[in-house]
Amino acid sequence: MKKGLKDLKRFLYFLGFLSSLQLLYLAFLPIHRLEDLKDSGFQIYSSEGRVLRETQGDSGYIGYQPISEFPEFLIQSTLRVEDSRFYSMPGVDFLSILRAIGQNLRNGKIISGASTIHQQVARIVLRNQLSSNVWIRKYEEFYLAIYLNFRYTKEEILEVYLNRVPLKDNISGFPSGSRILLNTDLHFLTPEQSLLLVSLIKKPNAKPQELEKRYEYLRVQYFPECKSEISHHLESVFQRNLKNGNQNPLTLHYVDWIQSRSLHSKGIFSSEFSEELSRKIYGILQKEFPVLERYNAENSSVIVLKRSGDTKNPKLSLVSLIGSRNYLNEKEGQVNGALAIRNSGSTLKPFLYGLAMEKFGWFPNQILQDIEVSSLGKDGEVYRPQNNDLSYWGQMTLREALSFSRNAPAIRTIEVLGIEKFYLFLKSAGYDHLEKPASYYGPGLALGSGGSRLLDLTRLYSSLLTDGILYPIYLGKENGKEMYYGTKTTLLNPQTAQILTDVLSDREIRRRAFGKRNFLDFPFDVASKTGTSKDYRDSWTVGYNSDYVVGVWVGNFSGEQMKRVSGSVGAGRIFQNILRILPHSKKHFTLSEGLEKRTLCRITGKSPTPNCPTYREVLPVSLTSETCDTSHEISGKERFFSDRNIPGILSPAPGEIFYIDSSLPQENQEIPIRIEYSSDRSEHRFSYKINGSERKMIEESIETTLPLLQGKYNFQLMRDEEVIQEYSFLVRQSL
Hints:
Elements: H1 2-27, E1 42-45, E2 51-57, E3 60-61, H2 72-82, H3 94-107, H4 117-125, H5 134-151, H6 154-164, E4 166-168, E5 171-172, H7 174-182, H8 191-202, H9 208-222, H10 231-239, H11 252-261, E6 267-271, H12 275-292, E7 299-308, E8 315-322, E9 341-342, H13 349-360, E10 367-370, E11 375-376, E12 382-383, E13 394-397, H14 398-403, H15 407-417, H16 419-428, H17 438-441, E14 452-453, H18 454-465, E15 469-470, E16 473-478, E17 481-485, E18 489-490, H19 494-504, H20 507-514, E19 527-532, E20 538-544, E21 548-555, H21 570-581, E22 595-601, E23 614-620, E24 648-651, E25 657-660, E26 670-678, E27 686-690, E28 696-698, E29 700-707, E30 711-719, E31 722-733
Parallel strand pairs: 1-6, 8-16, 25-31
Antiparallel strand pairs: 1-2, 2-3, 4-5, 6-16, 7-8, 7-21, 9-14, 10-13, 11-12, 15-18, 16-17, 19-20, 20-21, 22-23, 24-26, 26-29, 27-28, 27-30, 30-31
Helix pairs in contact: 2-8, 4-5, 4-6, 8-9, 12-21, 13-15, 13-19
C-alpha cells in the first residue's frame, strides 16, 4: 500500500516537473502580445466604409474587426457548432476529450479531436512553432489553450478566432470570407449566410453538394429558423472569379498608389476615396469612349478633389482617382494616367499670367500682342510657336489672351517674366519631375513642354480656389495617422487668385471662344481651362466650382496622335458630365473688398464714353482709370481686339528678345518693324521713335526692318506730341 502511494507521488511529481517545463517552454513562445494574434494584413477602406483592397497577412486574407462588429447570430452559431462550453471551461474541454477518446477507440482511428476554440487559436497563431508530430502537437495545443485562457479574456480569444478561422482558398476569418466568398459586408450577413460560413470551418475544401449537406445538417440540428434554400449563396462561393475577386477596375489604380505610399502596408487605411462617386465617373468614361474612339482616343484619367472646411482652414481631399479606361485591359490598362507625365498644353497659362500680374502690376485689361514670335531654343534651334488657328490677332487684353488660349502672347509673357521664375514657381508647386534646368525647357514651358501629372495639375488649380495657397491633399488615415500628398505653400496672393478665377469663369467670353453651346458652359459658376498638346496627343480640361476641383485627361498612353481632339472637346465632354453629377451648392465665386467689377471700353481698356463698346472687368478699387478719348465707329457692334484708330504695333512686341545668329552673315539679320494702320480712321497724327531717334510718321501700315545689333531698345508710340505707348525689347548674341 505504502509502495503504491510512493509510486503515485513520484508520478505526480514527474507530472508537475513536466508541466513546469512546459510552462517554461510557453514563456519563450512569441505570443506575449495580443497584437501578435491580430495580424490583419492591409485593408484599404473607401469613404463609404467598404473594403477596396485587403492584402495578405501572415495567415492569408484577413480583415480584422473587433468582436462588437460581428452579427450576434454569427457569434452564437459559431459557439454552438464549434465550442458550446466556451465560456465555462478553462481552455480545454475534458468532457469532450473523454468522449473523443471513446469514439476513436471504438472506430480504431481518429475521427474526433475535441479541439476547443482556445486550442484552434493556439494552432492558428503558432502553426510554425508547433511540432509536426500529431500527438506532440496535441499535447502542446493542450497547454497553450490553458495558457491563453489565463493570459487573455474569453472575448479577446473569441475575437481572434472569428477573425482568423481558416475557411476556403487561403481565406481566413469571417470578415474576409463574407466579402470575398459572399460579396457581402460582415455587418449585413443574413442568418443563412452566417451559417454557411460556419459550415466551412469543418469543410473548407468541400464540394458544393458536401457543403450544402453540412449546412442542412447544422440547420436541422441547431437552427431550424434558417432557410433551406441557399443555392444562390453556394453559387457565389464556388463560381466567383478567384483571380479578380479582390479587384475592381475602377479602384485598382487608386489602391495600388495608396499601397505604394504606405509606410507599413499593414493595418487599416481609411481613405477619403468615394467608391460611389468613382463608379459614376467610371460609367461616364465607358459611355463617352464609343464616341472618342472614332477620333483615335483610347484612354482617359480623372482626378476629383473635394474642398471642405472654412475659408481660413480649408481641407482638400482626394475623393476619386481613375487611372485609365480599364485597369484589367491587357493593352496598357495598368498605366496610371493620373500619375503619368504628359505635355500639359495650355493648362499652365493662368499661372504664368498670374505671376506676370504680380510682378508687373498687370490686370486683365493689360494689352498684350498676339503677333508672330520667335526665339532661340536649346541646341541653337529657333523656337517659333504658332496659335492653334495658324493666325495672329494683334492687340488684345490679357483676359482675351488667356480665355482664347493664344500661344504667342504666352510666349512673350514668359520671356518678359523670365523662364527661370516660372520654372521655380512650378517646382514650388510640386512639379518635382522637372529635373533639368530651366534653360532646357525654354519658353515652351509656358505651353506645357515640361509636362504635368494630372494629379499635380488638378492640385495646382485648387490653389486658385483657396486664395493662392496650395494645400496638401488629404488621403486618409493609416492606422489612425493622417496621410497627405504634397505640402502647404503660398503660390499667388489672394487678389491674383480671385482675378484669375473671374477670368476662367467668364461665361460670356467662353461662349465667344468655344461657341454658345460648348462643353464648358454651366448654369452655375465653374472656372475652367483646357489644354491641347502638339499634334493632338493630349487633351486636358481642369476646373472647379466652389466645392470640387476636377481634372480630366484624354489621349493614348502610346503617345499616338488623336484626330483633332482638343481639350474643349475630348476632355471637355467628360469634364461637363462629371461636374453635373457632383453635389454642388449655389455659391458664386466672390471677390474680396479690395476688388470690384468695373465697366471699361473694350478696345482701349479705359473708362468708357457712350460711344464705346464695353465689357465688365475686375480691377482693384484703388485703381483709377483714364476716360477713353477715342472715337469709335462700331454702330453697336462689340469688338475684341485692337482699335485700328490707333496703330497696332505687331513687331517688335513689349519685352521681345531677338537673337543674333553667329552662323549667318550679319547683313542678313534684321529686326522686323510691322505696324498696322489706316490714316483715314483718325484725326490724330501718329509716329514712333526707337532709342530716341528721329520721329517716323505713321500714315499707313508699315513693314520695314532695322539692323540686328546687340543691345537694349526703347520703343515709343506717339499720338501728336503725346507718348501713348512705351516699352523695351532686346537683341542678344546667341550662345
